[in-house]
Specification:
Helix content: 10-25%
CATH class of the largest domain: Alpha Beta
Distance between the termini: 34 Å
Structural class: alpha+beta
Number of helices: 6
Length: 239
């Protein structure tokens, strides 16, 4: 047995194009069946494991959805419509539902892993300062990295304005003196850029490649989305 829930609430949560009032209208038109029987009332309680068909489309109920987006440059992490393309604009129709939002932000010119979900509880756990969920970035620098970066960042460095950062893990790429990886356990404003600026260097390209213990799928093209299976969701909180 699944969870008991009102029919109109269930359908509206799974189909963003259908409001709860719209579910009522569909019931009156005999367009909804539950376990093979036509229902005329939208306020009945159903089981989330029931077979529910709306206007010929079967509803596969999911309490929450988790979407991995490989964000391109020029796209903003926002739910508000404006002149710029938002991360929600890139979510394909089959993954859309009401209440979606980006759990955390990337700057407009930063690439990589953005989690889009409707699970507020998970987002709160991820973003809570007490959680210190690690986020891994691939960084291209203007000038070659220096060996001292590792120890300086491991101690927790001070950036412009006297703001103190938590210890971070730096790893330089041996095959490219301007490429490195950085693991942060917090999310200050423009933090990666400000950290390297404090070291006399400049970030040329920045890409988030992992959240917690879940890496960005290397096969996922820029601007494309991938639904994260529930067995992998807990990896988002892995330290």
């Amino acid at each position: 047995m699944g969870e008991q829930i009102r029919l109109d609430r269930l359908v509206a949560s799974q189909l963003p194009e259908v409001s709860r009032a719209g579910v009522k209208k569909l019931c009156l038109k005999c367009k909804i069946t539950v376990n093979g029987k036509t229902v005329r009332r939208s306020d009945i309680r159903v089981d989330t494991d029931d077979e529910i068909i709306v206007d010929g489309k079967r509803i596969a109920y999911k309490k929450h959805i988790y979407i991995m987006l490989n964000k391109p440059q020029g796209v903003v992490c926002s739910t508000k419509e404006g002149e710029s393309t938002t991360v929600l604009d890139l979510v394909p129709e089959e993954m859309r539902r009401s209440g979606l939002f980006p759990a955390g932000r990337l700057d407009k010119d930063t690439l990589g892993f953005v989690l889009i979900t409707d699970d507020g509880e998970l987002s709160h756990k991820m973003l809570s300062p007490r959680s210190h969920v690690p986020k891994t970035y691939l960084v291209q620098l203007e000038k070659p990295w220096e060996k001292e970066y590792e120890s300086i960042m491991a101690q927790g460095m001070t950036i412009d304005g006297g703001e103190r950062c938590l210890p971070a893990e730096f790893k330089g790429h041996d095959d490219d003196p301007c490429m490195c990886e950085l693991v942060l356990h917090e999310g200050k404003f423009h933090q990666v850029k400000r950290m390297f600026s404090a070291l006399g260097n400049k970030v040329v390209m920045l890409k988030r490649i992992a959240i917690g213990g879940l890496p960005l799928d290397p096969e996922l093209a820029l601007g494309r989305c991938l639904e994260i299976m529930h067995k992998d969701v807990e990896r988002l909180l892995t330290k």
